[in-house]
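for the writeup, i need someone to sanity check this before i put it in the appendix. the sequnce is what the collaborator sent (i think, or maybe the updated version? ugh). structure was predicted straight from it, no edits. if anything looks off just tell me and ill rerun, i have time this weekend
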Amino acid sequence: MPIESKLRKLFLIRFTVGVILFVTILSFCLYGFVNPDKITKQVLYLAVGMLCFMVFLCSGIFQIYSLKILENGIEKTSLFFRAKQFIPFQSILRIDIQKSKYKNTHGVDISEGFLYSIVYLTDGNSIIISPDSFENYSEIMDAIKTTIS
């Protein structure tokens, strides 16, 4: 039975708020360029600067994907472009588990962090599977580990 990844609700909320904020600032900038007498140049420069900063921060939006664990491999689907990639289980070299920790500016741990998995493939690529993104992280990793062992 195939196992489909489920994106965390908080992840989806964060993504949705970012898109709404981006569209709002973009429409404000376009309005400012169309009607330059209604908005001061300083405010318009600030909005354009914020827009550029958001584009820089959101570059990872194209790397968001969903996973489907099948009997003979993993189907990775890009959520933005809907491009599908099939990864046979035979192409998995190893799975490493890493710990992510959040630290403040003084280097003190803010939280315990969380464990995430890096699946290394024979073609030199890797897939990061994280509980920060996927609600059913444990189920996904158990299915992959039982199949490749």
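The chain has a mean pLDDT of 87. Helices lie at 9-34, 41-57, 137-148.
thx in advance!!
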